[in-house]
Amino acid sequence: MTFHYNDIVDKIYSLPLEDKVQLKNLLENNIADTRRTEIAANYKQSKEDYKAGKLKFSSNIQDLKNML
User: Fold this and answer.
1) Alpha-carbon distances of 7 from 2, 4, 21, 46, 47, rounded to whole Å
2) Could you tell me the pTM of the whole model?
């Protein structure tokens, strides 16, 4: 079964207010969970890069600009 974006939006707009609020809360929680998962993966990758010596640190502004 294939749903098109516009069809989904139309269905959401036709929902009662209580259902819209519940859907909004579900989506917000899902987005937060997804973001937390991304942050955890980035942290893990950063730790691995640090252990492998792939990260460089500096407090010198010019060095930081050159790293970009």
Assistant:
1) 10, 5, 19, 41, 43
2) 0.69
